Request: fold
Amino acid sequence: MTVGQLIGVILFVVSLFILWKIRLVILLAFTAVVFSTVINRMVVRFERSGLNRSIAVAFSVGIILAFIGGFFAIVVPTVIQQLQQLIDLVPEGLERLRQWYVWLQNLIPGRLLADISSLANVVDRIPGSTSDWFGGFFTIFSNSVDFMLNLLVVIAVTIMLLANPDRYRHIFIMAFPAFYRRRVDEILCKCETNLVGWALGMLFNMTVIGLFSGVGLWILGVRLALVNGLIAGLLTYIPNLGPTLSVIPPAALALLDAPWKAIAVIILYFVIQQVESTVLTPLVMKRQVSLLPAITLLSLITFGIFFGLLGLFLALPLVVVLQVWFKELLVKDILNSWTKNGKDNSRYETHDNNSPENAEAESAES
Reply:
């Protein structure tokens, strides 16, 4: 290894170390970029109606803050009250489940239940720890000063980005070689389109799932329908795993009333998820980015482990953006243009092998 290579490796390691140290700043900056990208669509609509850029930004941010403030003023007090009741009632429902399991074990010969005997031990542990789980979750959101400070930073940076997005975009593009800057601008446009489409689609799905769940639980007479509907809507953000987790609290509460009600809750959530997957998702798929379920779930787990709650929140938009860069930069501009011995091998792409253009080209070569 030459001295220049050694210096390059050292600088690379130092850069990684610095990036890891400022990872929170980077995540907050990306959060502001996501928010500004989505809100900018609203700002552009106001600009087209004749408003000045500054007035359009102030108007858009004011509408969003007013909506959030009204939500917190009207809904959150009731949600907090019901959430505290949920913390107290869910262990009772799980205890009822344990009692029914013991009754079933006494009714049916023990050999038939030998393979699932560990379930009793699991259920015994849940009531004692459920309160701690929900209590810790509630404490993180309600008492964390760092969360509020980070939120203020994100709001401030978002407004700054909205005030003059072209300048920040130009600075980012200038970091690339001159011959590739036009292509970077195209990739950024695709990132913006996919990011906005994903955000609107996700917001639509979360709202519909939350409303359907809350109304369905209210019709069934399950207690705390509002907070359970809100939980179902929020957990829709986590694909595959979220809907499964959201059914646990209302099913446990339904067990306090009658077994049939718990079964009805499970059926209700199953029907809602089927409607979401077969009707809602195809309806918004024109604007929503299609993400592979396995990659999505693994990214949520990975970013949650490395970056905590903020990483869990940013995992999906990061995957949306990285998916575009992977497809456009790595696949199209590098791998598809890779040549060997001066010969272009792009005709061996699997997704174009059966195209009419390739068939004509092959027949012409023969």
Notes: The longest helix spans residues 293-335. The CA atoms of residues 128 and 179 lie 62 Å apart.
